[in-house]
Amino acid sequence: MPTGNRADIDRLARLLDTQFKLPGTNFRFGLDGIIGLIPGVGDTISGGLGLYIVHRARQEGASGGMIFKMIWNLLVDTILGAIPLVGDLFDFAHKANAKNARMLQQHLDKHEATLKPVGRGRA
Fold first, then answer.
1. What is the pLDDT along the chain (123 residues), one digit of tens a residue?
2. 20 in helix, strand or coil?
3. Taking phi first (over 0 means left), then psi (-120 to 50 degrees means alpha), and beta for anything else, what does residue 95 get?
4. Fewest C-beta atoms under 10 Å: which of 34, 74, 77, 96?
5. Are 47 and 77 a contacting pair, CB within 8 Å?
6. How far apart are CA 72 and CA 91, in angstroms?
7. Beta carbons of 32 and 91 less than 8 angstroms apart
């Protein structure tokens, strides 16, 4: 049963993908790219953090197809991010957590729209 609570999802996606801005540019990055710089374990750690958004999607009743897409986004981010140098650049650009949060928000918006009561008119 969807809770409709979005604050934790937005907060984590922003922290991991867009929290910081490179001065003088519009380029945004988050802890995912920074943690990914740690050789060997950085991408695994940031992928694990991103799994929280997938977990919340499951709690909110997202379909199996959506969960699959979210896990795929994380796997691409984690596996390609683990490639030395090129993967680090990819990590800063890919923003899997923001994509997953956006998919979940769309699901919640759609679900919320179907739950709005229909007025019966004036008595």
1. 556 567 888 999 999 999 999 999 999 999 988 988 888 798 899 999 999 999 999 998 899 999 999 999 999 999 998 888 888 888 888 899 999 999 999 888 887 766 655 555 555
2. strand
3. left
4. 34
5. yes
6. 15
7. yes
Compute the distance between CA of residue 120 and CA of residue 77 in angstroms, rounded to an integer: 49
CB 36 within 8 A of CB 81: yes
Q: Within a 10 A sphere around the Cβ of 116, how many other Cβ atoms?
A: 7
Rounded distance, CA 74 to CA 120, Å?
45
What global pTM score does this model have?
0.80
